[in-house]
Hints:
This protein is an alpha+beta fold. It has helices spanning 61-64, 122-129, 140-149, 178-188, 212-216, 241-246, 260-265, 350-366, and strands spanning 13-20, 26-28, 35-43, 50-57, 72-78, 88-91, 97-109, 112-121, 132-139, 159-162, 168-176, 198-203, 206-211, 223-225, 251-254, 270-277, 282-289, 327-332, 368-375, 385-389, 408-420, 425-434. Strands 1, 2, 3, 4, 5, 6, 7, 8, 14, 15, 19, 20, 21 and 22 form a 14-stranded mixed beta sheet that branches. Strands 10-13-12 form a three-stranded mixed beta sheet. Strands 17-16-18 form a three-stranded mixed beta sheet, with helices on one face.
Amino acid sequence: MSKQSLQYAGEYNLLECFLTTSGSVTIDLAKNNQILEINIFEDIFMNTISGNIVLTDTNNLITELPIIGQELLSLKIQTPGFTEDRSSINFTGKKEFSVFKIGMRTELSKGAQVYELNFISQETLRNERVRVSKSYATDLSTIVEDIMTNDKYIGTTKELFIEPTLGARKIVVPNVHPYFFFKDLLKQSVSIDGSPHYLFFENSDGFHFRSVQDLYKQPAIETFHFSENLPESKGFHRQEQAIIDLTRILQYELQGTNDMLVNTTSGMLGSTSIAHDIYSKNYVTKTYGYFDEFHTNTRVSKSSNPRYSESTDMNGKSIGDYPEARMMVHPISTKGTIDANHMNYAPSKLSEYASTKNSRELEIVTGIVIGMTLPGNTAMRVGNIIELDIPVIGNDHSKTKVDPFYSGNFLVKNLRHQFLQTTRQHFLHMHVVKDSVEESIPTS
């Protein structure tokens, strides 16, 4: 991709912004200079993209058209020089957003007003309007693909990124909304590589039904720096200033640290899963320890080490040796045609993976989290892997030595694209997370 036409970091081109009313009247919001600000939100734990657009109105269009919360918003924004399809934010044609609510509305001056339109993906409204009542006998990834593309259900035309799941299942969907059903599938899905840590989310590329490990396999798309002295080894001294500034973190905040109490009580460090068979009146217990299974699956760091020490306490145990910190019970059946949750003909495998799935999800939520603001670019997506170069604080070498805890590879957990139309400035507000560290923690 060519970036030579970028004049300054955070520059963007608003290529299209049309609002189509329920009466099929289309207005060009960009041409009429009505836009003050556009915000677009992505989250790895959300199954939709959402956002808002703030407008000025001197013609009382909100009443005359009218704008009632049933409009379609066509939007295309691109960073200059980013010419590839996946380097722009493109929600045009059948991918338009649905305006679902009129937010803040206030008088700006006599004859002028400001109001906010909130929008989401059309698939989200579709999900709330339809239900799935159907039986399947195939693998879970195929079920997701069918529901997402079937015109009777979601019927999306967006690209799907679905990681194949292991094994065929017989499943009855009991008249529920599609995304609600997907929550159950996430608990039961296991990849061909043996990873049970699946996520279902939407970003500007499309819908993703993938394991965390599949995301971790991606190479870092860019290295971002917080320092006035960018490392010469990166070669940025040979590039134009706009490109250098595009990789510079404007500000950051360390928002996630190791909360021992929360991570213990939640079961991230240790837990017990009990599969209770209500037919045969017996149960099977499986324990989980943080250190025992740390290297079982791929981690985000290049050199993956636990972010806790394996040192022992006064009882001679490590923090991962307390599986009774959290107990989880899962009813199953090994006889009959329907199990205890009334959905699966075959016995559920949830109890086998419940503890590790719980731990891995909590590592993303409560891991090493950094909130940051940087000049925006339309190629960034939630679910991307990025590399951070953050210097050590309070050290003579603080401008050159990187912090081993807050540098390295991170997963983009959520983000907000902020487009300020009056100043033509694009900012990117992100939270990124890592579940491991580059250097091992000393053990006494």
